[in-house]
Design brief:
The complex is a heterodimer. In chain A, helix 13 runs antiparallel to helix 18. In chain A, 59% of the residues are buried. By secondary structure, chain A is mainly alpha-helical. Chain A has a domain of 217 residues. Chain B is globular, with a radius of gyration of 21 Å. In chain B, helix 12 runs antiparallel to helix 13, helix 15 packs antiparallel against helix 17 and helix 16 runs antiparallel to helix 17. By secondary structure, chain B is mostly helical. Chain B has one domain. The chains are: A mainly alpha, B mainly alpha. At the A-B interface, helix 17 and helix 18 of A face strand 1, helix 5 and helix 6 of B.
Chain lengths: 503, 492
């Protein structure tokens, strides 16, 4: 690569490559570390490094504009280009940040839920999954997206199945089938685009697609890509792999994946929808994001409704995730700066909210040994800090003002109101869905605080290694709900750059 | 200290008190001392803001700016000042009463009770000082949530059912109706601030104006406009101090206070008085105040009768605001204060009867005036004030409401108000009359042994009963204090 004499300079210039290379190289090393807590400490260290890289990249983008990095010195469109702009720098930060904060939490959860002789493999899979998600996000090459998608998917199957619960195996298999289906669709879409344009570079695709855009092949490519990606982020009705996956996997996996995996897939949707197909007149009347809107509305209504009737806390949270994905896609489907801002900022807001909730659920699982809601009676007295964090993060899930959830819904509703009668209906449905969220969060509150704890077993407060990350995220839910300068401004800048508006 | 500091302290002192109450929970005497000290400090602090507001200042504090134009802001104006002063002052009296009641009744979970009470007061002051709809909405929800454990305090099935109705109606209306109304307002005007003269004038008219008003009026479920009044009788399962301060003063008054705020500072009196599509509110309020009085007559449970009476009295305030005239609004605002003093006395008496004699049904209260003479005498004072008989506070606000109705050209409202006063007589006066004139059940011809509630309860009852009398002579001051809110410039 670069032969610059100044090593420090070269490090900063090669950050886009290091973002992916560091966790990729670290994963196999991790499998050799078989002493106690070794794999965990190493994964934490690597995660901290990737987070630092992501943060630095975001600052570089915000101050200096889009970064284009030529992998191996091969100039695009022949070589693979890594391209960092506001939106994917933001997603990189979310993914690596969640990994960094979930790992300290994972220590106790993994000790309890993953067999000791598999710890090195677990953390290797974690790092590979991180590498895959970062790769999907950072690359500017359509085929490269597929490659990293496979890396992240394969490691996700491992993570999901790594727990002791045998039901996790069927859940992982379910995800394997659907995930493969989705990946195949994406591959077909990318292949069709390659046939029509002769390029795989995303920026180049957007330029060359113009003359051939009004063909069945390109429309088919867009259809395959949209459906394939929607499968990956579990949009209703392609959602049924998600509840089982999050319910039966180790708690730390639920925290990590619920906050990152679906977000990355939504980013890919944004990338294809706006950067590749955005400027094409033929797509003005057949806009796939708008086609997803009804599915998004059904997703948040069904997700919230089904969540009310769950008796397993993790499954309840998983169904609520399906609803929240609906909000993000609804924002994207509504379009415009407000709609996209709502969708993008909700990537971040939901990541910290849902990660906090899954952390609280995992901490309760560690102590109580069950996720059945009836077993949580009186948990507000025995685990006061964990329960309080759960309730506060639950407020953010509902969208109470002063939380991040409110900011997302505020933009979502403002975007909806710009669409006339249908928009008013969507705004009303968003509020109805929030009311449903009140009900399912309140169910937990009632059980936790207003029922007497079972006396046959002493339940202790969660360990500090779980409480600290949990509370960091919970405070984040409120901090970023009050000081919206960071998240909303970045999301708005990302929305404007996707729409090609210069601020 | 600057006045802005006092505003922030008004929210903070009850929270500090809450921490103190939780920490001293093991020692009841210390805990009650903390409550009393906090309540007193809080009232002194709130009253220290008063002179500046009277002089025409409108101090403002912005804590956070969520999004451009969307802030957490506190701005004190006369109406909010009055509400905060009422809530914080009566908290002291109510705390004295609570000590007598809770101990006399040997209630459990008293630490939770006092802690939630402190939080509710902080929320009520947040509502009083809120400078925009968003801030008001946040504290409105906090007030709902912090009073839920108080409503379900007894923990039995009845309490849980009542609590569920309470929470269900209040949360569903606020998120389902009030929040959409707030968003709609933002969409129309781009601001949620309370501005003298209103922000909606010229932005909304005709059917939309009527609909938006409906979203607000039914979104503010705490104002108990029919047909969403059911939560208030349901909340009567709470211990009486809760019914007294929260469901006769803080919570319900927060509801009608919000109604006046929205009509005066968001719609503007100009819009309300000229737009005929908003007149429905006058009729609905008139129907509510009559119907609720009629229902009250049929309630044998004393607290439920008082609850329906409260629903009726709340609609006086709504009616005053709905008329859209200066006299109506000031009369409605004044009625918040007058009714607070009268109704808290009545609830205190109901609780005292329960503590001393364990009676809840009016039919069992024959001759009770001979057993509890002080309590029954104060009950009569409170009842006369609620009915509106001079020289008690309630007479002035009803008089102003009638003037306001005449100004607005709704003469029939005067008739409604007179009819309602007669109904008030019919459902309130039999209680003291039967108490004093009839003999207690099972008593012989000899003298009856006096058996009052604990001293702390009796002291509190006497204070609030005296207050209804004092307020009669303060009416002119309250009138002068509130009048600036009806002027578009805010009277600065």
């Amino acid at each position: 690569m670069s032969t610059a004499a100044n090593a420090g300079f070269s490090l900063l210039a090669n950050l886009p490559a290091l973002q992916v290379v560091v966790p990729m190289v670290a994963a196999p090393i991790c499998t050799f570390l078989r002493f106690r807590n070794g794999p965990w400490a190493f994964a934490l260290l690597v995660s901290a490094a990737t987070f630092w890289i992501a943060a630095t990249l975001l600052m570089q983008v915000l101050s200096g504009g889009v970064i284009s990095y030529e992998m191996g010195g091969w100039a695009p469109p022949v070589g693979i280009e890594y391209r960092v702009d506001e939106i994917n720098a933001f997603v990189l930060l979310i993914v690596s940040g969640i990994s960094l904060i979930a790992l300290p939490y994972a220590l106790r959860s993994v000790e309890r839920e993953v067999p000791r002789d598999k710890h090195h493999l677990f953390y290797a899979a974690w790092l590979l999954c991180l590498c895959g998600m970062l790769g999907i996000t950072i690359t500017g090459d359509a085929f490269n997206i597929f490659v990293f998608l496979e890396i992240s998917s394969l490691s996700t199957y491992m993570l999901l199945a790594s727990g002791r619960d045998p039901r996790a195996l069927t859940a992982a298999f379910q995800y394997l089938v659907l995930g493969t289906l989705g990946a195949t669709f994406i591959l077909i879409g990318v292949g069709l685009l390659y046939i029509m344009t002769g390029t795989l570079n995303i920026a180049d695709l957007a330029d060359r697609l113009g003359p051939v855009s009004d063909t069945t092949s390109v429309r088919a490519a867009a259809a395959f890509l949209t459906v394939g990606i929607a499968l990956k982020f579990a949009l209703f009705p392609a959602h049924f792999w998600l509840p089982n996956g999050y319910t039966y996997s180790p708690s730390a996996v639920g925290v990590f994946l619920s906050a990152t995996a679906t977000k990355v897939s939504i980013y890919v949707l944004l990338r294809f929808q706006f950067t590749v197909f955005g400027d094409i007149p033929a797509f003005a009347e057949l806009d796939f994001a708008t086609l997803l809107l009804p599915f998004a509305v059904v997703a948040f209504l069904v997700g919230s409704t089904v969540a009310i009737f769950q008796t397993d806390l993790k499954r309840l949270l998983a169904w609520s995730s399906i609803a929240q994905i609906g909000y993000m896609v609804a924002g994207i489907g509504l379009g415009g700066v407000d709609g996209l801002t709502a969708g993008i900022v909700h990537l971040f807001n939901h990541a910290i909210t849902k990660a906090a909730l899954f952390m609280a659920a995992g901490a309760i699982f560690l102590r109580v040994g069950s996720m059945h809601i009836d077993k949580l009676a009186g948990i507000g007295k025995t685990m006061p800090l964990t329960t309080l964090a759960f309730v506060l993060a639950g407020l953010s899930l509902i969208g109470v003002p002063t939380t991040v959830g409110f900011i997302s819904k505020w933009y979502l509703i403002l975007a909806a109101l710009q669409h006339g009668a249908i928009g008013y209906a969507i705004a009303a449905l968003v509020l109805a869905s929030s009311l449903l969220a009140v009900i399912y969060v309140w169910r937990i509150v009632e059980v936790a605080y207003f029922r007497e704890p079972a006396t046959d077993r002493e339940v202790a407060e969660a360990p500090l290694s779980m409480l600290l990350p949990l509370w960091a995220l919970t405070i984040g839910c409120f901090y970023f709900g009050l000081e919206t300068g960071y998240s909303v401004d970045i999301a708005r800048a990302a929305a404007q750059s996707l729409l090609g508006i210069t601020p | 200290m600057s006045i802005e500091t006092h505003i922030q302290l008004a929210l903070l002192i009850p929270i500090i008190g809450l921490v103190g109450i939780v920490l001293t929970g093991r020692s009841p005497n210390l805990r009650e001392a903390v409550t009393l000290i906090t309540a007193t400090a809080n009232a002194i602090n709130v009253w220290s803001i008063f002179p500046a507001i009277q002089a025409g200042a409108r101090p403002s504090v912005t804590l956070f700016e969520l999004l451009p134009g969307l802030t957490i802001n506190f701005t004190v104006e006369p109406l909010g000042m009055m509400f905060a002063a009422i809530a914080s002052t009566l908290w002291i009296v109510n705390s004295i009463y609570s000590i007598g009641y809770m101990r006399g009744n040997k209630e459990t979970n008293q630490t939770r009770f006092y802690a939630c009470f402190a939080l509710s007061i902080s929320a009520a002051i947040g509502i009083a000082f809120a400078g925009n709809l968003l801030t008001l909405f946040i504290f409105y929800e906090i007030l709902t949530l912090s009073t839920y454990p108080l409503v379900t305090h007894k923990g039995n099935e009845d309490a849980k059912r009542g609590g569920r109705t309470y929470l269900g109606i209040l949360i569903a209306t606020s998120i389902g109706l009030q929040l959409p109304a707030i968003i709609w307002t933002w969409n129309l005007t781009g601001t949620l601030d309370f501005v003298p003269g209103g922000t909606l004038a010229g932005k909304v008219q005709g059917l939309s104006a009527g609909l938006l008003l409906a979203l607000y009026m039914y979104g503010v479920g705490k104002a108990a406009l029919m047909p969403i009044h059911k939560w208030l009788p349901a909340a009567m399962v709470a211990p009486t101090p809760v019914s007294a301060l929260l469901h006769a003063v803080a919570v319900v008054k927060a509801g009608v206070f919000t109604v006046i705020k929205i009509i005066v500072y968001v719609f503007g009196l100009e819009l309300i008085s000229t737009e005929s599509a908003t007149n429905w509110l006058i009729y609905v309020a008139a129907i509510t105040l009559t119907l609720a009085s009629l229902i009250a007559m049929n309630q044998d449970n004393l607290k439920r009768r008082l609850a329906y009476s409260t629903i009726s009295q709340l609609s006086y305030v709504i009616l005053g605001a709905a008329l859209g005239t200066a006299m109506g609004v000031v009369g409605g605002g004044m009625h918040i204060a007058m009714h607070a003093a009268g109704k808290i006395t009545l609830f205190f008496c109901a609780g005292a009867i329960y503590v001393a004699l364990h009676k809840t049904e009016i039919s069992d209260m024959k001759g009770i005036g001979r057993i509890m003479p002080v309590t029954m005498f104060c009950f009569m004072i409170g009842a006369l004030s609620v009915i509106g008989i001079p020289p008690l506070g309630g007479s002035w606000s009803k008089f102003l409401l009638m003037v306001g109705a005449a100004d607005a050209g709704f003469q029939f409202i005067i008739g409604v108000l007179i009819l309602s006063s007669l109904l008030n007589v019919a459902y309130l006066m039999p209680i003291p009359l039967r108490g004093f004139l009839l003999k207690p059940a099972g008593a012989g011809d000899g003298p009856v042994r006096v058996q009052e509630a604990p001293l702390a309860c009796v002291i509190a009852i006497c204070i609030t009963a005296t207050l209804t009398f004092v307020l009669f002579f303060l009416a002119q001051d309250i009138f002068d204090f509130l009048l600036p809110i009806t002027v578009a410039g805010g009277g600065q």
